[in-house]
Amino acid sequence: MGLDPDGHRTMIQQPEPLNFATLSARVSRFYPAAAARRGEQGDLHMRLLVDEAGTATDCTVTAASQVSRITTNACEHFTQEALFLPALDAAGRPMKSFYATSILFRMQPRR
């Protein structure tokens, strides 16, 4: 991953997402129609690498439910659109780091 373990032990700020709610809502809107008809739900756990400028440079799915049809496009959306305040090292300088998150794909009850 190219991360500095010593820097992470002493960093003063982890990466902070700036547009996570908007991005999560956008990813959820792409719920596959076939999965929705079958009532399929799923969980996605991923890790994003965040560079010194606050840009997500890579995404790895660390765990996912068996319903991969639902979760396949989330990493693509996050690496293209996620914005972060970067992590800060002990001297207050931006540093490479990672951000771990989960998205729960759930069907909304019909009203």
From TrEMBL:
Instruction: Return the SUPFAM superfamilies for the record.
Output: TolA/TonB C-terminal domain
Q: What InterPro entries does the record point to?
A: TonB_C
Supply the Pfam families for this chain. Answer: TonB_C (PF03544)
Q: Which GO terms describe its biological process?
A: transmembrane transport
Locate the TonB C-terminal domain: which residues? 16-111
What is the protein name stated in its UniProt record?
Answer: TonB C-terminal domain-containing protein
User: Species name for this entry?
Assistant: Croceibacterium mercuriale
